[in-house]
Amino acid sequence: MPKKKKEWNEEDRRSTKLNSKGMHRLFCAFGPNEYSRDKLEVTHEGTNQVKKSKVGILTLNYETFKMKPKEDIKVILD
């Protein structure tokens, strides 16, 4: 649980100040359109590494899919 602001010590204040400066520099480095587009892409589609991982998992699931004897397709899909 995060500390309340009145409970912060000097290290907490310094850390927060550094974080704020870093975030400010990042926001200033990108224009609003670039930042929004990149954020939306990663949020909704994932990074290239995530995409490759998803494809790998789905491919493995497809290749190893087997029905047991006397097993109904309805049971598998539920």
Concise overview:
This protein has 78 residues and is mainly α. The protein is built from 4 helices and no strands.
Give structural notes:
This is UBN2 domain-containing protein. It comes from Gossypium australe. This protein has 78 residues and is mostly helical. The protein has one domain. Helix content is 69%, strand content 0%. The chain contains four helices and no strands. The protein has helices at residues 10-29, 32-44, 48-63, 73-77. The longest helix is centred in the first third of the chain and has 20 residues, at 10-29. The radius of gyration is 24 Å and the shape is elongated. The two termini are 39 Å apart. The mean pLDDT is 82.
Order of helices and strands: HHHH
Q: Which whole number gives the mean pLDDT?
A: 82
The general outline is elongated
Instruction: Give the uncertain stretches in residue-range form.
Output: none
* End-to-end distance: 39 Å
**Oligomer category:** single chain
Q: Beta-strand percentage?
A: under 5%
Structural class: mainly alpha
Q: How many beta-strand runs?
A: 0
Gyration radius (Cα, Å) is: 24 Å
Number of helices: 4
Q: How helical, in percent, are the residues? A: 55-70%
Number of individual domains: 1
Describe the sheet with the most strands: none
Protein name: UBN2 domain-containing protein
Organism: Gossypium australe
